[in-house]
Amino acid sequence: MAELIRLGGDVARYIAAFGHPETHAESASLLASLPGPVRRERASGLARTYLEYRQAGVTVIVERAKLDAAIVTLVGGEGFEPYARPAQLIEGIDFATAYKDEVRSVLGEPVRADEYQDNFDVAGAHVVVGYDIDDVWDVQVLARSPLRS
Length: 149
What we know:
The structure is a single chain. This protein is of the alpha+beta class. It has a single domain, classed as CATH 3.40.33.10. About 15% of the residues lie in helices and about 30% in strands. The protein contains three helices and eight strands, in the order ααββββαββββ. The chain has helices at about 10-15, 25-35, 100-105, and strands at about 40, 50-55, 60-65, 65-75, 110-115, 115-120, 125-130, 135-140. It has an eight-stranded antiparallel sheet with strand order 1-2-3-4-8-7-6-5, covered by helices on one side. A hairpin with a 2-residue loop joins strand 6 (about 115-120) and strand 7. The chain is globular and about 35 Å long.
């Protein structure tokens, strides 16, 4: 099995915070850096809370009191501003102008792909890049792959 790539850029801060409570130094620093008020939305019947930073274009998912995932909106909409640092999200990809082929040239061959998204296993996380045709729509960073049991 090939060695998984380690991501640089803003996404590395999310990966470092995964598995830690909101009050942990890595998590607290990350959350404090996101602009705007946070809107907390608890998922009914689940031990999951969504921390929506609409001005930042970011939703952080807390599962069982630990940071577990982040969704970064690159286009904006539904009350979310687009992420302000698209060229810094993942080192080597400028999501303001990137297309599917450019994403794959940096992240490699996806472990699963369809017309709407590519799934990548990377060191310490799983990344899902959502597309509208070939344009990048959003980037989801998860603590673990939903494709593996």
